[in-house]
Amino acid sequence: MQGFLNATRSPLRSFLKLSLLPPLNIVWMLIVGMIFKTTMGWLAWVALIFLYLLSVAPVANLLARGLEIYPPVDIGVCKKADAMVLLGAGRPRSSPELEGYQPTPLSLERIRYTALLHRQCEVPILVAGGGKRPESEVMVRVLKNDYNVDVTWIETQSTSTRQNARNSQKLLSKELRGKKLPGKEQVVVVLITHAWHMPRSVLSFERVGFKVIPAPMSFASKEITWQKGTYWIPRVRNLRVSELALHEYLGLIWYRLTNR
User: Fold this and answer.
1) pLDDT, tens only, 31-46
2) Distance of CA 200 to the CA centre of its chain
3) Which of 41, 84, 149, 246 could form a disulfide with 190 if both were Cys (CB 3.0 to 4.6 A apart)?
């Protein structure tokens, strides 16, 4: 019975989360506004305004900038860590032009930066990410085949950032037990993920006992001139940045409310 409840809870939670984020929340507002035209017709106009704002560069940039609070990592500090932790970024996908399943574009960005950072810092790597087809296994294969980088630890069970942190803590505390120097109790990790994903990642990893060295990459926010007319033309890529940012804000609120 408990297994059935767990199986049904996850799809429901995913649906509720998607309903709070664009574009589905905009669709819901449009539907309600069209059905109840006499009393809530204004909601359709709100939805269109909301869609426009999230699709323009100044708004998307502002949302991303609020999350990208960590600067690029200091290589000298990076070299003092016990491990580098690379977080997955979505389920692997089948590519007709390539054999087997491949990482998502976001995961490929993280993989590339991990390979570069590993050569500079020379710190062993842990790759975290599970699912039906564990994304960590796919990422490890790409790191080895495309960048000739070996991975020391693989975590294949987690399906969320919070689980990434918990499972990584269990794995590294076991592997590094007895290897810590006197007076150095915490495991120090270089955490690699996108800049907009870093605040929630740092929060998750610190709460399980890690000392975190953030290594953000692929910053989405840029220095732009608000007065430039072309920046106010709606584009799909801006809507994607807004969606990612709002997802992170929603996650941070949820973590705070549940004290996770």
Assistant:
1) 999 999 888 889 999 9
2) 8
3) 84
